[in-house]
Amino acid sequence: LHTDLDPGSKKIKYILSGDGAGTIFQINDVTGDIHAIKRLDREEKAEYTLTAQAVDWETNKPLEPPSEFIIKVQDINDNAPEFLNGPYHATVPEMSILGTSVTNVTATDADDPVYGNSAKLVYSILEGQPYFSIEPETAVIKTALPNMDREAKEEYLVVIQAKDMGGHSGGLSGTTTLTVTLTDVNDNPPKFAQSLYHFSVPEDVVLGTAIGRVKANDQDIGENAQSSYDIIDGDGTALFEITSDAQAQDGIIRLRKPLDFETKKSYTLKVEAANVHIDPRFSGRGPFKDTATVKIVVEDADEPPVFSSPTYLLEVHENAALNSVIGQVTARDPDITSSPIRFSIDRHTDLERQFNINADDGKITLATPLDRELSVWHNITIIATEIRNHSQISRVPVAIKVLDVNDNAPEFASEYEAFLCENGKPGQVIQTVSAMDKDDPKNGHYFLYSLLPEMINNPNFTIKKNEDNSLSILAKHNGFNRQKQEVYLLPIIISDSGSPPLSSTSTLTIRVCGCSNDGVVQSCNVEAYVLPIGLSMGALIAILACIILLLVIVVLFVTLRRHKNEPLIIKDDEDVRENIIRYDDEGGGEEDTEAFDIATLQNPDGINGFLPRKDIKPDLQFMPRQGLAPVPNGVDVDEFINVRLHEADNDPTAPPYDSIQIYGYEGRGSVAGSLSSLESTTSDSDQNFDYLSDWGPRFKRLGELYSVGESDKET
């Protein structure tokens, strides 16, 4: 850098500032030459902006304004091309035509694409020819050979090169790999491994059993190798079928109908395998199917007997004679040896043993009488067993229908009871009856009704046959009176239309009843005749209910009055605990002066007569007792209480409830029992209180008191 100023006597110094000043670029402050002190990389930074200025050497004052300039780094070819996404994988269908696009690849070059040819790339294939080619500039890879076969070679490895400098010498290059896989197309037909298959099968094999497998191989894979199997010809198309196994890609031959060695010993089938998915592009390669012959040999087996019919239907009249033949079943051994057959009845199906069968010829006979009215159908099972091999058995169902004969006389359909109103009119229908017959004639039932010969001219009733096979009973006159005759019995003869016809006599009971004006029956009893006409049955029931209610109220009232009048004085033979009066209050202890006069205990001398009770006045006449003699003030309270207790026990007028107010009840379940003196009123006063001494120190004093009382009584 040089300034345009005339320096004169001043000395000029150059200074540099900006990007990389002092680190990458350095200026000679005397000459103004700029040097790069480090290697430059255009790919790292392509240009630098710097500012230069001329200043006075001594004072550093600017001699001219600063000048800005840009240093651009010129590119050189120092970066090779790179495939950032490699290695690559691609697929292309087999049998593709020439020039089919496979894929394209891309390489990048860090050099400047504008300056020179450092970033101009050219693509080429190093390995993979002659199967594939690549466009030099676009890097599109195409097939170079037509009809490449996947079955011959499935995978190809292609090495691709990208070279800069337009591919000229001296340029840098980079490589990558491309793996090309040929995908399958259906270009191969199925082919059986052998043209003839042999299978053998026993004649007694179960239907649906797999007899054998055939397989047509296909070089294709996946769905292109799927084949369907069919039987297209042969003498066993009706007996056999073939199904396709999608997993194993083979055909399974199964039995559709039973085989019989004695009828046919071998079968020949023609089996075809055809591709399911056919590509029309390759239809010219021929039919995508193949055929094979299957020969099946039937092996003999010991078979069970075969009945002439799968089911049998027999009919027999219900009046058939015992041991008469009602039908026959037949069976044979289908084997060549033809073993004799024995017949029997499965008794689980004939628990009542109503039928027998001849073991040799299969004739079924009647063992017990039949009754169609009890059971119309009998279902039994006949067993046929080979005599030479008892394990070979067969069963056949036999349905036996019992035919009807006219062996039941008709009778009333139910128990009828007719009601006749006293105020009925002549010709009025009293009752309509119908008949029933347990038999079942083919043309249905038709009944004939008649009265007994001696009842034809009876003056009271007549009969009339209806169109619905029922019978109406009519009254000949009015004025029936239940006081004269309450019940009439009318015998009726019922005959059927069977061959021969049967008949029976049923009696209809007719009751004479009192009815309302509109014919509603009210009472049929003779006693009810004396009741007022205006009272209905509901009114009578209401009156009776009121009477019963009044009686119950009277009984309860009398019971309550008796309970209130019971005396409060308890007799000697009663349990005092049943008559305890509960006041539901608690005693006040020593401060309670209302329950008991404490003065009596404090001053026994003042007691000369009797003190009136404060609670309840006794009903018995009280006899004054002679007072005790005066005792000194130092009287023993224990002795005083014992004396009073003795007097109370022997005084019949002393009520036992003087202390009930305080000690009325001590509770249930007490181990100690009751301590009340109320039980002292019992006639037997020989109570033993020795057990009190065993209750511990708390009851020691109480035991001594009662012991003293007992000793006094004994003395």
TrEMBL record:
<dbReference type="InterPro" id="IPR020894">
    <property type="entry name" value="Cadherin_CS"/>
</dbReference>
<feature type="domain" description="Cadherin">
    <location>
        <begin position="308"/>
        <end position="412"/>
    </location>
</feature>
<dbReference type="GO" id="GO:0016339">
    <property type="term" value="P:calcium-dependent cell-cell adhesion via plasma membrane cell adhesion molecules"/>
</dbReference>
<keyword id="KW-0130">Cell adhesion</keyword>
<dbReference type="GO" id="GO:0016342">
    <property type="term" value="C:catenin complex"/>
</dbReference>
<dbReference type="GO" id="GO:0045296">
    <property type="term" value="F:cadherin binding"/>
</dbReference>
<keyword id="KW-0472">Membrane</keyword>
<dbReference type="InterPro" id="IPR039808">
    <property type="entry name" value="Cadherin"/>
</dbReference>
<comment type="function">
    <text>Cadherins are calcium-dependent cell adhesion proteins.</text>
</comment>
<keyword id="KW-0479">Metal-binding</keyword>
<dbReference type="GO" id="GO:0043679">
    <property type="term" value="C:axon terminus"/>
</dbReference>
<dbReference type="GO" id="GO:0043083">
    <property type="term" value="C:synaptic cleft"/>
</dbReference>
<feature type="transmembrane region" description="Helical">
    <location>
        <begin position="529"/>
        <end position="558"/>
    </location>
</feature>
<dbReference type="GO" id="GO:0034332">
    <property type="term" value="P:adherens junction organization"/>
</dbReference>
<dbReference type="GO" id="GO:0016477">
    <property type="term" value="P:cell migration"/>
</dbReference>
<dbReference type="GO" id="GO:0008013">
    <property type="term" value="F:beta-catenin binding"/>
</dbReference>
<dbReference type="GO" id="GO:0007156">
    <property type="term" value="P:homophilic cell adhesion via plasma membrane adhesion molecules"/>
</dbReference>
<dbReference type="InterPro" id="IPR015919">
    <property type="entry name" value="Cadherin-like_sf"/>
</dbReference>
<feature type="domain" description="Cadherin">
    <location>
        <begin position="84"/>
        <end position="192"/>
    </location>
</feature>
<dbReference type="Pfam" id="PF00028">
    <property type="entry name" value="Cadherin"/>
</dbReference>
<keyword id="KW-0677">Repeat</keyword>
<keyword id="KW-1003">Cell membrane</keyword>
<dbReference type="InterPro" id="IPR002126">
    <property type="entry name" value="Cadherin-like_dom"/>
</dbReference>
<dbReference type="GO" id="GO:0044331">
    <property type="term" value="P:cell-cell adhesion mediated by cadherin"/>
</dbReference>
<dbReference type="InterPro" id="IPR027397">
    <property type="entry name" value="Catenin-bd_sf"/>
</dbReference>
<protein>
    <submittedName>
        <fullName>Cadherin-8</fullName>
    </submittedName>
</protein>
<dbReference type="InterPro" id="IPR000233">
    <property type="entry name" value="Cadherin_Y-type_LIR"/>
</dbReference>
<dbReference type="Pfam" id="PF01049">
    <property type="entry name" value="CADH_Y-type_LIR"/>
</dbReference>
<feature type="domain" description="Cadherin">
    <location>
        <begin position="193"/>
        <end position="307"/>
    </location>
</feature>
<keyword id="KW-0732">Signal</keyword>
<keyword id="KW-0165">Cleavage on pair of basic residues</keyword>
<dbReference type="GO" id="GO:0005509">
    <property type="term" value="F:calcium ion binding"/>
</dbReference>
<dbReference type="GO" id="GO:0005912">
    <property type="term" value="C:adherens junction"/>
</dbReference>
<dbReference type="GO" id="GO:0007043">
    <property type="term" value="P:cell-cell junction assembly"/>
</dbReference>
<keyword id="KW-0106">Calcium</keyword>
<feature type="domain" description="Cadherin">
    <location>
        <begin position="3"/>
        <end position="83"/>
    </location>
</feature>
<dbReference type="GO" id="GO:0000902">
    <property type="term" value="P:cell morphogenesis"/>
</dbReference>
<keyword id="KW-1133">Transmembrane helix</keyword>
<keyword id="KW-0325">Glycoprotein</keyword>
<keyword id="KW-0812">Transmembrane</keyword>
<feature type="domain" description="Cadherin">
    <location>
        <begin position="412"/>
        <end position="534"/>
    </location>
</feature>
